[in-house]
Design goal:
alpha/beta; ten-stranded mixed β-sheet; binds 6-O-phosphono-alpha-D-glucopyranose
Length: about 475
């Protein structure tokens, strides 16, 4: 593996700033194994993480230095950070208008086509803002490379235009881009006007290596590249010849950080939550879902399936509880607020229709309490992971790693995680609520031997590799791809 200096670029950085008790701004680290792995790679190679200033506090900190360069220390770990501060209106157009609204909905096939989206002059302003912010990232990265050569790892759909914008400023830059979410199919892409579609595809083709979570997203991207007249696509080698360069496409399924999850599971806070949950459950079987309040997660059809399950299999009434732990997400978008309200209403309707004095069929908790999530992972009998589309889905990996009851995983075929876990899970077609109801019943009735066998297989598959391996594999492939070009 190369020990070259690594620059990471992402919209959300590893650290954000919040006001402490005395009003002074203090750094706070983002959660998750990916932050650990990428910031580890940045620190050990003497690199830097370029990210957006997402809040007023971030902008204030960015303005305190000439280039937005900061070196926060959180829990004894040092972060080398460069924050890009944009005016709030431009940032809102970039983040909410394009990234969260247009691109997220495009890649997750969430459009409600008779009504949305409508692309008007506001969309053109949003797109200009998206280009501008991507351009600012490219400029900052080019400056950093100029000062000291480095490999660049660009993260996710917020920064789709960065690879080409950086290549225009630094022809020999070594650039890997990773797309964490699904990649749109050809129907959705064909509905985009050419001025957006071409920008998006050629933006990504500025990279030497374009990575995806699962083969199906890589294939969608390669198919999309065929729509560019001047690109030559070799599907078998997963390569695109573009502007006299070869762009390598790769598949790198992201993994969870098993050790730190197990450590959390052993903590007193999780033990206390476990006791509370066991008391609440009162010996009933537990159907669990853990998600952000996110339309692509298919939470509503999950409730519909549970309702159908209670109707079709009345023998399970009073013997099962459905715990839905939802983390509030993107409440500044009206679609998300409406969806969250609809989830609350669906849960209440089931409780009103089926509840009894000593049994509430659904317990919906909308908050951000990871200790409670980890406690619930330990206890479920059935874990429902039924997204419409999902790049990977880490709940499907975290749950089986921590579960202590040989719980059964119900998993959408359309989640990236299905490629690794599908054989040991019960497969779901996410739109089919009747089949999902049957699958809940099948999972609850599964004989102990089969549950144990599947749970063991899931633990092995979900625990394979680490976020650090995930970074290392991409660095090795970037090295190969970039060296071939030199
Ligand atoms: C999900 C996706 C990531 C994405 C993130 C953005 O977690 O899996 O790929 O980067 O959302 O969320 P944010 O809160 O930063 O808008």
């Amino acid at each position: 593996m190369t020990a070259r200096r690594i620059l990471v670029a992402s919209n959300r950085g590893p650290v954000s700033y919040v006001a402490g008790d005395d009003g002074a701004l203090v750094p706070k680290r983002g959660a998750g194994g990916l932050v650990t792995a990428l910031s580890g790679a940045v620190q050990t190679t003497g690199g830097l993480w370029v990210a957006s200033a997402m809040s007023a506090a971030d902008r204030e900190m960015a303005a305190s230095t000439p280039t937005g360069r900061l070196d926060p220390v959180v829990d004894e770990a040092k972060y080398a950070l460069r924050l890009i501060a944009e005016d709030p209106q431009t940032y809102d157009r970039f983040y909410n208008g394009i990234s969260n609204h247009m691109l997220w909905f495009l890649h997750h096939a969430l459009w409600n086509l008779p009504y949305a989206p409508t692309l008007d002059s506001g969309t053109r302003d949003d797109w200009e803002a998206y280009r501008r912010v991507n351009g600012r990232f490219a400029e900052a990265l080019a400056e950093e490379i100029d000062r000291n050569p480095a490999d660049v790892l660009v993260q996710d759909y917020h920064l789709s235009l960065v690879p080409a914008a950086l290549r225009a400023r630094a022809a020999h830059a070594r650039i890997a881009y990773f797309h964490h979410i699904p990649f749109a199919g050809s129907v959705e892409l064909s509905l985009l006007p050419g001025w957006i579609r071409r920008d998006l595809l050629t933006g990504l083709l500025g990279a030497d290596l374009v990575g995806f979570q699962a083969a199906r997203w890589a294939e969608n991207f390669l198919t999309a590249c065929r729509s560019l007249e001047d690109a030559q696509v070799d599907t078998r080698r997963r390569q695109v010849r573009w502007e006299d360069r070869i762009v390598q496409v790769g598949v790198y399924p992201i993994t969870v950080e098993t050790d730190s999850l197990l450590e959390t599971a052993d903590s007193p806070a999780v033990a206390a939550r476990t006791t509370d949950l066991e008391r609440w459950l009162g010996g009933r079987r537990l159907l669990l879902r853990v998600d952000r309040t996110e339309p692509s997660k298919n939470i509503l059809r999950g409730f519909q399936a549970y309702e159908e399950f209670l109707r079709r299999y009345p023998g399970w009434r009073r013997k099962v509880c459905f715990l839905a732990l939802l983390n509030p997400s993107r409440q500044s978008l009206p679609e998300y607020r409406r969806y969250t309200d609809a989830c609350r209403e669906a849960a209440e309707a089931i409780n009103a229709a089926f509840g009894e004095p000593d049994w509430r069929p659904v317990e919906l908790r909308i908050n951000d309490d990871f200790d409670e999530v980890v406690a619930a992972y330990g206890l479920y009998d059935v874990l429902l992971v039924n997204p419409v589309l999902d790049g990977m889905n880490l709940v499907a990996k975290e749950g089986p790693l921590l579960n202590r009851r040989d719980g059964v995983l119900l998993l959408s075929r359309t989640a990236g995680a299905f490629a690794e876990l599908g054989r040991q899970a019960l497969a779901l077609d996410p739109l089919d609520v009747t089949a999902t109801a049957d699958a809940i019943n099948a999972a609850l009735r599964m004989p102990a031997g089969e549950r144990a066998r599947r749970a063991g297989g899931l633990r092995r598959a979900a625990g394979a590799g680490s976020p650090a391996d995930w970074v290392a594999r991409q660095m090795a492939d970037l090295d190969r791809a970039a060296t071939r070009e030199e």
